[in-house]
Specification:
Layout: H1 2-16, H2 24-27, H3 32-42, H4 64-76, H5 81-97, H6 99-110, H7 112-124, H8 126-133, H9 139-155, H10 162-178, H11 186-199, H12 205-230, H13 240-244, H14 266-275, H15 277-294, H16 296-312, H17 319-324, H18 328-352, H19 354-366, H20 369-373, H21 385-420
Helix pairs in contact: 1-5, 1-7, 1-8, 3-4, 4-5, 5-8, 5-9, 6-7, 6-9, 7-21, 9-10, 10-12, 11-19, 14-15, 15-16, 18-19, 18-21
């Protein structure tokens, strides 16, 4: 599975890697903020400047992927074709390796037959291929790390030694340094483990403390760095209000333009440079809070719209929007199909074994909440995409089995009628 997935992704990389070197907008295509921070590291300015001008030290980005990209730049050159080929190949490898935790996680939940099928589905899964082979971002790395954490969380309640819990917390800390959005699931996994442990009459307090300690030990150096450099206490990054504003300013909602964050415009970017990151973020937070205070109903409507979009891909069918997003229609069809199979699979999980189902249901219920409140694009499903695939495959097979049962019942009914006649 891993080799097949890697081959598929590398074939795509061979066709698209040169597109990443487009110098338009100061090489924005080459990783956007991630690429600019990596450039700053390579040029000796440290972890700074997430936009093209030199804006000083930053906590807008998590550190893991920009540092990886900076290493690629040092070896293959800044914004070169070789660097693009290298980082997309690395992303493809991360995505291919994700077959391993997907396989073992599914085997634990549903048995060997479905684990093999789910692994092969991941090999050719369109979203997995696109976001690894054609996008320079942390998606594949985060997906691999989080799926491994999910695999560990499924078995965490059976681990009696504190070191196993400590290791889980430490790995989760590394995952958060790749993308802190996964932190919302950490307490959920611990709570689910506590429920199992209490049922088994096990010791849960020390084990959970060990997991929290492992997480804190990994995150602590970055927390200290952010405080010393920016005087901000944040686990990984401080960009929440910068992400919140584009979807809740009353102006750009119709276009769902996630690039409409304030620094994207030249005037706002100049103000960002002038006042600095912390002051600018404080101003954006004040504007965002003011919007919610004066437009609570609109904020709720926006959030519901985003929730629908997260699971259907539908944002707008206006001619102007479709011109800007020409793949909107096929994306809607694919996303809705996957979601319907996922929901059927979730029902099958729940009917078969509620204990096994809970981690999957928690992932699709808790993880997206942040994006419902901010803004949604397909990128933001990537950390939990493997869990979605597992449930979708389970749902598809459940539907097939149900159709088989119905056909057998129909055939028997016809035979009964014929015999009676």
């Amino acid at each position: 599975m891993v080799l097949a997935a890697l081959m598929v992704r590398l074939i795509v990389v061979a066709f698209v890697f040169r597109d990443q070197t487009d110098p338009t907008d100061h090489h924005a295509q080459f990783g956007w903020e991630m690429g600019w921070v990596a450039r700053s590291i390579v040029q000796g300015h440290g972890f700074s400047s997430p936009f093209f001008p030199a804006t000083g030290p930053t906590a807008l980005m998590p550190p893991l992927f920009p540092c990886l990209l900076a290493g690629v730049f040092r070896i293959f050159g800044l914004y070169t074709s070789k660097a693009a080929l290298a980082i997309l190949s690395i992303n493809s490898l991360f995505s291919a390796l994700t077959c391993i935790p997907i396989y073992f996680s599914t085997r634990y939940s549903l048995g060997n037959r479905l684990s093999v099928l789910t692994g092969w589905v991941w090999v050719v899964y369109p979203f997995a291929i696109y976001f690894s082979a054609d996008r320079i971002w942390d998606y594949s790395l985060t997906c691999l790390l989080f799926t491994t954490c999910f695999l560990m969380a499924q078995r965490l309640h059976g681990q009696r030694h504190h070191l196993a819990w400590l290791g889980f917390g430490a790995l989760y800390g590394v995952t958060a340094l790749s993308n802190p959005s996964v932190l919302s699931m950490f307490p959920v996994f611990l709570v689910l483990a506590i429920v199992h442990i209490r049922q088994l009459k096990g010791r849960w307090v020390l084990n959970n403390l060990a997991a929290v300690l492992g997480l804190f030990v990994v995150l602590a150096p970055w927390i200290v760095r952010n405080y010393r450099v920016l005087q901000v206490v944040t686990p990984v990054r401080d960009n929440f209000w910068l992400e919140f504003w584009p979807g809740n300013n009353g102006n750009t909602f119709e276009s769902n333009d996630h690039l409409a964050r304030p620094p994207s415009g030249p005037i706002e970017l100049q103000r960002f440079v002038l006042v600095g990151e912390r002051s600018y973020l404080d101003q954006v937070r004040a504007q965002s809070v003011n919007f919610i205070r004066h437009h609570p109903v609109q904020f709720i409507e926006y959030s519901l719209h985003r929730a629908v979009c997260y699971w259907t891909g539908y944002w707008s069918l206006s001619s102007a929007y479709l011109r800007d997003q020409p793949t909107e229609i096929p994306n809607i069809f694919l996303t809705i199909t996957i979601t319907l199979f996922m929901l059927r699979g979730a029902r099958r999980f729940w009917d078969d074994d509620k204990t096994v189902a809970l981690p999957y249901l928690a992932a699709i219920a808790v993880f997206p909440l942040t994006y419902y409140a901010t803004h949604v694009i397909p990128d933001y499903r990537q950390p939990i995409e493997p869990e979605i695939v597992v449930m979708a495959v389970a749902g598809a097979l459940s539907l097939r089995d149900r159709l088989k049962i119905d056909k057998v019942a129909e055939r028997e009914e016809r035979l009964t009628v014929m015999v009676t006649a």
